[in-house]
């Protein structure tokens, strides 16, 4: 059975090809800085955007043509597994990510949901064994169902809390069954609408409690994936507790979760928080907490999470430069948390959109590698901080100075000359690495 009968496995054909269904920049086997491109990038396909998104929006009906819709929900779920692995294989993506509700029908009861999950994840496991495709991460969707109206781990209703805990337990059982390398928590409804009825401290204590239960359960079943928190400032909650990388790190440190939790950073979440993607990655890196990336981009003219496929080489280069500085992204990867636009409603658009994203990240990787090889930014920074390499600067960073000794120094050296950054020249040189 094939869902894409007219499309062969996507191959690298180079920038001059006019074959739409070919990579023009992503050559999985090409070695960049001593490592194959596929091992630098560790691309993952997101089940939700690829398999369940129907193209509807608040003003319009579903538009996406999808040939896997069956007569029952369970039949559709099974067809989706088949089609999904065909997409991953055709793209040569070695990893995938999913929420529990993406793969299996919710059923009438929690027990039925779990049974559906068991049946579908058996199929997924078979497909993983046949294809060698691996689970980058799974997660529990604790935000779509009406029961999560007031949050999951941050809820005011203890029964909802228990329900969320059951989903996390099942998520970890599935992670063990499928050999998941990471496990993600995105707190879609872990935030508040108004402080008038919210006990912020109580809610955050309860969120941390759930995370500690997850750590304990992982230890108990002998499967501890890298746990990841995914920051986002708003949407759907007006204020989400995991606002951005720095806020989430404060949470991780406050509750003593450093050894078990890192960050899954998403480009469009960064821009919603008023940051660049590279800023968020640099923050995580400075805490040794860079876990994984959700690749997409927002529309700078809109204030919401558009989850577009990444096509901006400039932004992606600066993000991947931070990844190279980090020494790589494994055991994390680059997950396309991206959806086709409403006007791209054909089945083949699913492949074309991923090809665009993968080619963009391939170009970005090559540019970032060249920046690193030339030590362009390294030299710039070395020169900029040179005054801390010798004399009084070296003594400051060696912790040999204090306010009194520095006052003596300043009194004797108060005619200070600064150097221009020539930043416009630097930015223009940066363009040379991209084009
Ligand atoms: C939502 C988002 C999620 C998480 C997983 O903005 O990014 O899809 O990645 O729950
Ligand atoms: Co995401």
TrEMBL record:
Q: Where is the active site?
A: 99, 102
- Lineage of producing organism: Bacteria, Bacillati, Bacillota, Bacilli, Lactobacillales
Q: What is this protein called?
A: Xylose isomerase
Report the top EC class in one word: isomerase
- Residues annotated to bind Mg(2+) 1: 230, 266, 294, 337
**Name of the gene encoding the protein in the UniProt record:** xylA_2
* Gene Ontology MF terms: isomerase activity
- PROSITE patterns reported for this sequence: XYLOSE_ISOMERASE
Q: Which residues bind Mg(2+) 2?
A: 266, 269, 305, 307
- Look up keyword Metal-binding and say if it applies: yes
Which UniProt keywords are present, listed alphabetically?
Carbohydrate metabolism, Cytoplasm, Isomerase, Magnesium, Metal-binding, Xylose metabolism
UniProt-listed Enzyme Commission number(s)? 5.3.1.5
Instruction: Show the SUPFAM superfamilies listed in the entry.
Output: Xylose isomerase-like
Member of which family? Answer: Belongs to the xylose isomerase family.
